[in-house]
Amino acid sequence: MKPAVGLAVGRGTGAELATVFERALHRIATAHGAEIEIVKSPRTYHSYVSLREEVADTERIRRLTEEDAGHYERFCRDRARSGTTAVFRTAVNAQSLYLVRQRLQAVKVEPIAAGDASLLLVRDEAQGFYTGENRHAPGVVTRTMEFSREVTGKVLEFAVRRAWRQWPDSGPARVVMAYKFHLLDGALDDWVGELARGLGVDVRLFQPDTVNRNLITHGFADRTVIVAGNEWADIMHVVLLDRFGGERQENRCTENVHLHPELGELVEYQTVHGSADDLAGKDTVNPVATLRAAAAIAERHAGCPGAVAAVEGALAAAGARGVRTPDLGGRHSTTAVVDAVLGALAAPAAVAGRPPAGGARSAAPAGGTLPAGLLTDRS
Domains of the chain by range and CATH? Predict the structure, then answer.
């Protein structure tokens, strides 16, 4: 039976990036003599911009937000029950997304390398100030959220397990947690101490500003794990990529792992950039992160070994020819960039997973002007 991959599409540039994803996944599968089924969610989910443009009433926005969240949650559960292990999702309204992440107990995983040192960022998306429910009164919005020992334990246990997968010979050297624990009456501090003893690891719990100060002053030691609440990690994710990873958010894809037992750790891949509603229909949105997501899914979930290296080599080849979208200082359309990258996949070296001369990293420059729309609904 051929492997199946889920696809969920949001407004803004979602439809354009979904087309990029489907093209890339099918091209990679063909290069490996494989077939991959794509199962697309029947609903197109709102971005924040599309909600505000279509609906003026706060109560209607609240209902549509819940409808999107409920539908996407059911889609993920259905995919997991069917045996699907991966979903690609374009950007959607963050409020709907965090309702799903809370219910399905999601974490975001981001490995970052800086020279000889490597860092694993595990972002706790399942609890805290980004999750929860709103209650409205005239002139007031009250947001109710929670932290729990159970979810904290799942997140920390996953982080340690994932660290051993990343560094199988030695495991993590240091586990740091960045949370606003001073606001929780000592409860989180107590839970972390108990959980760390049960896992047999040394875990240091710090305020986010302390983690920032230490990173600025010292950087990070090799095999460091940072487990962080959304309040810090959402902002610092892009900063860490830029400062330590040599990457830009519009080029990066990342994975979210759902820890709810009924999901079987279904992995959702997404671009780090957002819905970019202002670019919709212009054929100028940067496709690099989507191409990378297709490669990661093909290799890790659909039996296409070498797909990641092949796509990185093709990205490098296209970049070396100056084929880039405007946000990276180029003059090419989304379609032109995708054509160039997928065309380079036909080269024997790329298909074999051997990047051409120049390395596997994209040759896109670090500079360039970032369209404001790429920051829309970055979730």
Answer: 1-105+260-379 (no CATH), 108-133+144-252 (3.40.718.10)
